[in-house]
């Protein structure tokens, strides 16, 4: 099915969708105005090693992987609206506390709360879009638009922070708290306009439990899915190095114009995505999914080699490498979701997307793994390792079609028997 990018589709967005889009822009903008500089704060305030900073960040991220999956199921039981309000309150509390903590233990606890809030918010937003938009093509465009607005916020936030002189200051975490307080007010208006067209029945608890069991059954039975999950965990691990490890490397190597460079990297990443996303969507629409993924992986490999070889003082060299990486990200990330959607049988769609949430382990382990490599072998070794891992991902994708898959009809019958 081809993607339909048109204003007629955009006009079909309900009011709540526009609230989610604008809210994503402002909250992610304020989030990235301060969060990427957290590694700098931990290093300068507590003199933590790269491994210790990575451990702090990974601890929060690993916990968030589990809460993301659990939160998605919980929203079916208590309702999307209620859990979104609770998550927004958790955001406000955690970021307000982050502006005050003055110990490593305090940072660990509060950053974990922040990570939990973030991991809950993303699937809740996606699930709400599914609740309020029925047409598949309009829903796909809504998802693409949300990805666009998130990256637009990522682009504007860091640069606005530099211009306002807020980056690197602990008190600036209040900005994100205020942004979410405003979003909750907007959400209240949006839900009143929407009257949430779909409510999940209370008897879905047993179905959620079945889906959880089915997730593990599919993981064990589908060799293709196992290989795909491993490939994408590695892929996420590689990409996540630019979120924490690259910043740590530049900080410790005393790169010139550090704050401007960090903001420039984040801005470039988001700017490339928002300017190329819909262009690439149209250009590659006729390509098979595997071909699109191969193009994205080759760009990822090139970016890692560039980062490994770039001199520390070459400002625009870092920016150039991020441009290449961002083009690969723009192709790969949306295609991963489409790939899972096409692989999943209708009666196992929930189980497949539940299994796909394990991709986030790559993000979770990246700060710790990257920090260890930085401490022992340095930045060039880190990105050379990432390039080698990219070659492994390319190989795993090449052998996907040769791997056996289970008898889905039998699995469906087993599920029916368990429910009867």
Automatic annotation (TrEMBL):
<feature type="transmembrane region" description="Helical">
    <location>
        <begin position="146"/>
        <end position="166"/>
    </location>
</feature>
<feature type="transmembrane region" description="Helical">
    <location>
        <begin position="350"/>
        <end position="374"/>
    </location>
</feature>
<feature type="domain" description="Major facilitator superfamily (MFS) profile">
    <location>
        <begin position="16"/>
        <end position="404"/>
    </location>
</feature>
<protein>
    <submittedName>
        <fullName>MFS transporter</fullName>
    </submittedName>
</protein>
<dbReference type="Pfam" id="PF07690">
    <property type="entry name" value="MFS_1"/>
</dbReference>
<feature type="transmembrane region" description="Helical">
    <location>
        <begin position="260"/>
        <end position="281"/>
    </location>
</feature>
<keyword id="KW-0813">Transport</keyword>
<feature type="transmembrane region" description="Helical">
    <location>
        <begin position="223"/>
        <end position="240"/>
    </location>
</feature>
<feature type="transmembrane region" description="Helical">
    <location>
        <begin position="380"/>
        <end position="400"/>
    </location>
</feature>
<feature type="transmembrane region" description="Helical">
    <location>
        <begin position="49"/>
        <end position="71"/>
    </location>
</feature>
<keyword id="KW-1003">Cell membrane</keyword>
<feature type="transmembrane region" description="Helical">
    <location>
        <begin position="107"/>
        <end position="125"/>
    </location>
</feature>
<keyword id="KW-0812">Transmembrane</keyword>
<feature type="transmembrane region" description="Helical">
    <location>
        <begin position="16"/>
        <end position="43"/>
    </location>
</feature>
<keyword id="KW-0472">Membrane</keyword>
<feature type="transmembrane region" description="Helical">
    <location>
        <begin position="172"/>
        <end position="191"/>
    </location>
</feature>
<feature type="transmembrane region" description="Helical">
    <location>
        <begin position="315"/>
        <end position="338"/>
    </location>
</feature>
<feature type="transmembrane region" description="Helical">
    <location>
        <begin position="293"/>
        <end position="309"/>
    </location>
</feature>
<dbReference type="InterPro" id="IPR020846">
    <property type="entry name" value="MFS_dom"/>
</dbReference>
<dbReference type="InterPro" id="IPR011701">
    <property type="entry name" value="MFS"/>
</dbReference>
<dbReference type="InterPro" id="IPR050171">
    <property type="entry name" value="MFS_Transporters"/>
</dbReference>
<dbReference type="InterPro" id="IPR036259">
    <property type="entry name" value="MFS_trans_sf"/>
</dbReference>
<feature type="transmembrane region" description="Helical">
    <location>
        <begin position="83"/>
        <end position="101"/>
    </location>
</feature>
<keyword id="KW-1133">Transmembrane helix</keyword>
